[in-house]
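Re-run with default settings, no changes from the original entry. Doing this only to confirm the output is reproducible before filing.
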Amino acid sequence: MYGGGFDMAAALLHKVIPLELFETRRLLGAVVGVIGLAVTWRLGRRVGGRLQASGAASAGLCPTFYGHMFMNPKDAPFAVAMVILMLGWSAWPRNIRSPRRGPS
């Protein structure tokens, strides 16, 4: 029940670059996966520092995610979208203003 956003983006990219559709999907999946690794590193850095960020990014290179980056057009982009969402949620408490003292 996933949407066809990844397939649509791959089809549009296929019209621009001189690769077959199969290769274009794999290339786009790799790009999305690398973006996911970068966002995972950023989330780990925000939550726990440099060591946590390195651990999070290296955990993203596990064989399961690495294989899904290239061959799975549904689950890997969904996982990257969830990491991007978690990065946004982690920034939310920082953007809340602190209450003021005194009359409004």
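Residues 27-87 form one domain. The two ends are 49 Å apart (CA to CA).
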